[in-house]
Amino acid sequence: MAVPQIYTVSDTAAEELASADNVLFLGNALGTDIHLWERAMPALSAHYSIVRFDMPGHGKSPVPTDSYTLEEVADAVIASADKLGIQRFDFAGVSVAGAVALEIAHKYPDRIKHSVVVCSAPYMGGHEGWSERIAQVEAQGTASLVPALPARWFSDDFITKDPGAVKALLDMVASTDDTSYIKTCEALGAFDARGYLADIRVPILVISGEIDPGSPPAAGTIIAETVPGAQQVIIAGASHQAVVEAPLEVAKAMTTFLSK
After folding, report:
1. Who's near 227: CB < 8 A, 6+ residues apart?
2. Which of 89, 234, 104, 214 is nearest to 154 (CA)?
3. Digit-coded pLDDT (tens) for 137-171
4. What is the DSSP letter of 50?
5. pLDDT tens, 248-257?
6. N or C: which terminus of the chain has fewer CB atoms within 10 Å of its end residue's CB?
7. CB neighbours of residue 218 within 10 Å
8. Alpha-helical regions (H) of the chain
């Protein structure tokens, strides 16, 4: 099976990335794109050379021709780093890309300095847990998911306070290719990191939203208590898209951890 292709973008020139010792890769959540990190970028780019990437079939990444695993997305990130001449780097991912953060830390400990798992979990419910979502997208498309997402992704207060930010993420979901979304759901259904968490030797930070219903703090605690030396930060009042609701808090937790 071919490694899926991912689109990457950086404000730093390729020749500077190759020699930089502070490169940070950022991955997006299911149904979103590189702009998910937009609000945290000023705080992060002040300290790091940022490379953002779109999950397969999301944003500007090519639609995958085959099914893929999240381990293969980790392979694709390493392939992108190789192409850019980057030897070692930090990694952070939200939701599905948070699962990739675990895969890449496990498989490529010599390439990853730190890995940050944002609003994610070591297990996403298996294939049965995604069957209903897949069936809905097959029948009605990704736009049909939009009405139910605000309550799962944001606090009530944020929905009221910043409807523009909420709409921006919902528009990302509605524009995501149906087949690509389904393949990512299938990859999430096949993902289970619980068997190797204790073997990870890369420093891990888990960032959880206090009221996240999809990847609750308890799921993050499993990672923090099983990976040797891992840490957990809980963002008060934030839900699943904490990087949008509380970008400065997420960025502060990341920069404090990554500087160690």
Report:
1. 197, 198, 200, 204
2. 214
3. 999 999 999 999 999 999 999 999 999 999 999 99
4. E
5. 999 999 999 9
6. C
7. 9
8. 14-19, 41-45, 70-84, 96-107, 126-140, 149-153, 156-161, 163-175, 178-190, 217-226, 242-245, 247-258
Collect all residues with Cβ–Cβ distance below 8 Å to 19 and sequence separation of at least 6. Answer: none
Alpha-carbon separation of residue 251 from 40, 162, 180, 191, 225 (angstroms): 6, 19, 29, 27, 22
88, two tokens: 């070692």
Q: Does residue 162 come out as left (phi exceeding 0), alpha (psi in the -120 to 50 range) or beta?
A: beta
Q: Is residue 58 within 8 Å of 216, Cβ to Cβ? A: no
Q: Is 27 helix (H, G, I), strand (E, B) or coil?
A: strand
Q: Which two tokens stand for residue 192?
A: 């289970």
Tokens 């420093």 -> residue: 203
